[in-house]
Amino acid sequence: MPKVSTLDRFPRPAASADHQVPQNFETHFRWEYQDGREKLLNLYAKGKRLQWDAADRIDWSQDLDPENPEQMPDWTLPIFGSTVWERLSDAERANTRRHFQAWQLSQFMHGEQGALVCTAKIVQQVPAMDAKFYAATQVIDEARHVESYSRLLHDKFELVYPMNKHLGALIDQTLADSRWDFTYLGMQVLIEGVALAAFAGIRDNSQNSLAASVNAYVMQDEARHVAFGRLALRDYYPQLTQKERDEREEFAVEGCWLLRDRFLGEEVWETLGYPVDECARHMEESEFMRLFRVALFSRIVPTMKEIGLWGTRIRKCYEQMGVMEFASTDVEALANNDQQVALDFDRRRGEVERVARAGAAG
After folding, report:
1. What is the domain extent for residue 338?
2. Residue 308 gets which letter from DSSP?
3. What is the Cα–Cα distance from 209 to 61, expressed in whole angstroms?
């Protein structure tokens, strides 16, 4: 069966399949191979040990529910409870679920390609060999994540959305800056940090084991990626001047607002012909959306504090967002839980396969 191109899966025609970001940066070689920070080398060893194949670890024979592909509760839809939602027929609600879920997964897929490119840039730019080693393992992680979301969208949803403008703006800014630590800050801390919280919403609420397992396995890797950014930057930022740290805080503040606004889904409501202003107004007033936006920063806030970007600008931003409560969150405990949840998915799949083999043999 011939493959259908991604552009043909878009709900609206796209001008091009390509996007270029002009860059000007130095590639850094290092001839000292024996120095290295123990924690980063341990993370590198863990990254090698926990590689997996998306074609084998995920059971792609599973189907999705055409009326609710991820089998998510309706309260997770941003327009649930709005006057727009109340006017929809059952068929329109089913179509809304499919489009919103495909849109959200599409942003994950595009973000993972952004991470793939950013991490390849880190391998080139970062001066420390231990960081080059770990970043190399992350490159293959990100390729695997793009593969997983692409297969889920193309083969199961048969629907793909273009990159959201807010996510695209942050990725472009992250790549365009020539300083190596900006790539870490924009991707490893901000984009990966908010992605973890969004992935968790599907992993923990989806009743479809295919959709839930894809996000669980990606999260297992992403938790290491955020740790990589945290370990590298907390050693580097204390060496900078206050002016240099202020520049990074300004970048982070703008990035956080872009990430907060990327989940409004205006493209979905516009595609479906819904009144975008009415949908947006409901999302601004929705208690669920308020709590969702807050939860998105559960990993970012404690990481920013740990790496030493904790000046007036960033604290004011987080106070305005209502996310300062996460400053004391134990991100390592969250990462350990992500690892355990992924292993639990492996265990349950193994049990199902054993039962199936026993039934076939009997």
Report:
1. 38-46+83-348
2. T
3. 11
Pick from 350, 353, 223: nearest CA to 298? 223
Burial class (CB in 10 A: 0-12, 13-18, 19+), 253: middle
Residue 10 lies in a domain: no
**Grouped pLDDT means (10 residues each) for the chain, 362 residues:** 85 89 92 92 95 96 96 94 96 98 96 96 95 96 98 97 92 93 94 91 95 96 91 93 96 92 86 95 86 89 95 96 94 92 93 81 71
Total domain count, the chain = 1
Chain mean position to CA 237: 24
Distance between CA 191 and CA 296 in Å, rounded?
10
Alpha-carbon dihedral of residues 229, 115, 250, 277, nearest 10 degrees?
Answer: -140
End-to-end CA distance of the chain: 35
**The predicted structure's pLDDT at residue 330:** 93
d(CA 106, CA 118): 18
Helices (H), 88-164: 90-125, 129-151
CB 77 within 8 Å of CB 100: yes
Q: What is the DSSP string of 14-35?
A: -S-S----------------S-
Whether residue 342 lies inside any domain: the answer is yes
> Taking Cα atoms as reference points, which of 262, 264, 257 lies closest to residue 317?
257
Q: With CA atoms as reference, report the closest residue to 292 among 188, 197, 226, 204.
A: 197
The answer to whether position 317 is within a domain reads yes
Query: How far is CA 55 from its chain centroid?
Result: 20
CATH number at residue 318: 1.10.620.20
Greatest Cα pair distance in the chain: 72
Q: d(Cα 201, Cα 294) in Å, to the nearest integer?
A: 13
Q: Nearest CA to 64 among 211, 215, 268?
A: 211
pTM: 0.93
pLDDT of residue 1: 56
What one-letter code names the amino acid at 290? R
Residue 284: the pLDDT is 83
